[in-house]
Amino acid sequence: MSMHASAQRINGYRHVVKVRQHRLNADEPRATGGDDAAPCPQELLAASLASCTAVTMEMYAARKGWDLGDVEVECEYAPANRGCPTKFTLTLRLPSDLSDEQVQRLKVIATKCPVHRTLDGEVMFDERVERTQLAA
Q1: Tens digits of per-residue pLDDT, 63-86?
Q2: Residue 85 three-state SS
């Protein structure tokens, strides 16, 4: 399965991101020259990991017949610095009435979400340039 997204400049560093029929914005904080009109791309990466982790656990729990109620996944993300790898810290907030076995299973399942597996695996990039005419 192939995914597709595009980003088109609105103004400054603000872009509209298109995914299927959905639209969302990305921007940079004021401290880096943006208008802070939307999350920055790095924050959207953390949001992708948090939401994918939550959905993966919820789908697993539904197959097992477990009621998870209100699940929350928090993701803190520190981009790589010289000599230090990129670090993601995930906090899984699960109902207190789950057994220790259920919690352990959900913790394992959380690492199997597609975004987690993508970030943890080998990544290849294939860039190309297409030149367009400037609008008059």
Answers
A1: 999 999 889 999 998 888 888 888
A2: coil
